[in-house]
Write a structure and sequence with these properties.
Chain lengths: ~850, ~260
Amino acid sequence: MFRTALRNVLAHKARLLMTVLAVMLGVAFVSGTLVFTNTISDAYQNSSAKGFDHVDVAVVPKYQDSEGDKVGKPADLTQATLDKAAKVPGAASATGVVSGFTAVADKHGKLAGGNWQSAGGNYWGTKDARYPLTSGHAPHGANEVLLDAKTAQRAGYKVGDTVRLSVDGPVLTPTVAGIFTTDDGNVTAGGSLALFDTPTAQKLFGKHGTYDEIDVKAKPGTGQAALKEALDAALPAHQVKTTTGRQLADDQAKTIADSMSGLKQGLLVFAGIALFVGTFIIANTFTMLVAQRTKELALMRAVGASRRQVTRSVLIEAFVVGAIAGVAGLVAGIGIGAGLRALVGSFGASMPDGPLVISPGTVVAALAVGILITMLAAWLPGRRAAKIPPVAAMNSVHATATTKSLVLRNTIGALFTAAGAAVIVAATSMDASSGEAPMGLGAVLLIIGVFVLTPLLSRPLIAAAAPLLRAFGVSGKLARQNSVRNPRRTAATASALMIGLTLITGMTVMAGSLQSSIDKMAASAIRADYVVSMANGSPLSPDVAKKIAATDGVSASSPLRNAETRIDGTTEYVTGVDGASIAELTDLKVDRGSFTIGGDRVVVDKVRAEEYGWKTGSRFTAHFEDGKAQTLTVAGIYDGNDMIRGIMLDNKVLTPHLSRPTDMQVMVKTANGASTATKDRLTSALGTNPAIKIQDKKDISNDIAQMFTMMLNMVYGLLGMAVIVAVLGVINTLAMSVFERSQEIGMLRAIGLDRRSVKRMVRLESLVISLFGGVLGIGLGVFFGWAAGELLGTKMPTYELVLPWGRLVLFLALAGVVGILAALWPARRAARLNMLTAIKAE
Amino acid sequence: MTTTPTAGTATAVAARATELSKIYGQGETRVVALDRVSVDFRQAEFTAIMGPSGSGKSTLMHCVAGLDTFSSGSVRIGDTELGSLKDKQLTKLRRDKIGFIFQAFNLLPTLTALENITLPMDIAGRKPDKAWLDQVISMVGLSGRLSHRPSQLSGGQQQRVAVARALASKPEIIFGDEPTGNLDSRSGAEVLGFLRNSVRELGQTVVMVTHDPVAAAYADRVIFLADGRIVDELYGPTADSVLDTMKQFDAKGRTS
């Protein structure tokens, strides 16, 4: 049995080629993902493990939970705690760690590290074991800083240079006192690290004589566990938490593995889509191979093979095909993994070095996926093969494609489609959280329904294209008829393309609508000309707001100052604003009362008002982080949105309660409106700081657009694989059709159809099938986009469906291009067909 | 008997092969399929080509019909010399001047009987001559079945569609490759009757390859091929006279 199957595979090499390629691409995607994420994950784990070499036990402050009217915050790790830790038996030394965000500008004024990887810290004493100096000396005082060697080299700084830095807004210009090397994960990943002496770091990062962490080194002969025990005994248990270095390394490794597994799962979803598309091709191919071998299989049955043996022979064939594709896919996947690493590296985000990791799990997964998918998809054709009666061997009639009635299939399909659509429509009227599950269910039902219905849909939809095809004369007519000749095969081919296009269209519609609604929200809620914020979203020092207010041409400005409070025993984040200016800077719809902020008068959004049962004039008590309470009065209730919401009170009331006030944004209104000159003035007032973003409304729109474009491009790229597999499917179907119809094509050539017309006939068939898939996919995608938007719209008042017509036309054109490209080779083959052998072929 | 040149006949020639040779392979594997064959197919004449398998009868037909290339010599259809034509021109020639009837019917299953009949005109983008089309269709007795698809027709009916297709475009010459090979004797007789009628009544020229003496007896003239040469010729054949002629050079066994 195995030998027969193997022979069959070898005999049909060419016809199995596309199937192997399709499975291979899916497997390559899977194994590429695994290789890439394992490699990155391993490299990060190795580099982070090194980072804990200097820590035997880490002492961190315990978070004091919010309770009653008390605002929660971490306990202070004071100098006293550090001194105590250093004197614990078994401790060799204790290092206080302070860290925060520090942007370093290169010589052209640009950020030297990425937005999220610009870190700052403290250099402990005169010789810090964590950071070996390669040149210079330890920093001393507010005017000296150390830079890591990679950043110094990248930005071109050497000892003695003046460097421009920013921690929370104001620009600092210390001198580079020294250069150090480090194993810090952020730095190996391309970020920057700037170190100050401890008092400067504490001041800059707002730590006021406290530490974020105390790292204790053990004396030789003292184990980490013993040291931890000693520390636990000596330090106040309710204020600190101790962890051994080994535990930290393990925790970090686990965190990295977790974050990588998120990426891995995301990528595997797309790989799964590509594989799913591949199953349609596999099923098509095996259905055809079985149909072509009807006589042969019937003969096997006639000479005594059981049904199960026939099915098994088909499955063995699938196994061989899957195994070949699995191995090829694995090899390609390893290449992809290596290529991805190089690609990510070339984007500037350098990653820690490490060997390419090809785990046994990857190998097993690749082979298993390839083999199982192929066998699963070949199972139905295999069963159909078993149903061939032995008498078919005697029958001289050519086995025609299954003409079995589609009635049952259509009924099932219609039921699924109707149910799916109904559930989705019903879900759109629910609110966002409760509608999600029914919508997902509806989407699955609808997609299955449409899959099942495609053979039925193919006739009317392709008939609709008839007037266009008529322009191509007899080629067009024959192409149209050929494309509906085997509705199941056409349907499977078109479905494969449909999947990718449905997802692409759905994502595009949703993203476009979301973008425009967020845009609208940003534009409609803000009256300010500029919004100033930190490039990475970290908080700004109140100095920035002060400097802005003092800048020429600024007519009104207000920081948005965030603070945590307790109201009625729950945590509530409030926003402190400049009460006098805020009405000029925002444009919020006031529901009731008036938009007045000042003294004890505050405004609250509708959601909060409902939650707490407030009306205009209601009074409530807020407890601040300093433990003090303040009674406030609701002056007005406004419609909040994603950018501005919650309780807004005057900074004059809020700030005295804060130990370290920080602003998320500063809104700015200028006398002459947004202009380059105004922006330049603001920029220079803030010291030309690369870490600060000054955005007008257009910049904000662009930012939002950029975010969506990036996300969409990523999704397009990942779904591109599914489309490529679908293209292979179209090629496969056409090649099969050309092969099966060679006698007809030979006859057509004999009675006078020229080569060009034969080519055109195949190309048009391909175009018709692809456009059919394209129309279905885009239609479904728009429907899903609409439905998902309706659901989201309940959360976003400004949501409105935006159909990106340009994109939709582009996608349809893409489907057409897919059709033309896929037909290149089959059309050539058809045109080159040897007429005489074709006519004679029985 | 030897090859009889057809010089001196009064009727015009529809197709003529002169010194036609077709050679496959080279050196050791060299096979001569046609060896300097010269033959005329006169207008309004029904010619049958016979010979044992491997005699070159099909090759001769394919070369004269512009389906296959030849190694040397010349072939003319009407005034057109085939040897100098490119594939595109050959295709146009087949479309406009030649009709074909195949052993395996070779109809398009997606088209109705009528659409199959008018296919060559569709390909050429010409409107069929309605009166002529009706005449052909009623002659082959398909009037009631024009909207049927090939799968709904019997073998005999399918081959009648093929005959109508060959006749419909009024070609200069019709080539048949074992047109009755897949038919029972009654259907075969019908088809041959149509072909003969088309020659007698409509002045059509027909050339048919066959291995069946009964089929050959419908022709006006039978030429016999063996080893790539024309070895005999018979005018006004009967099944018996054809059989007798075949027995004379029966060295390798009769037919395929």
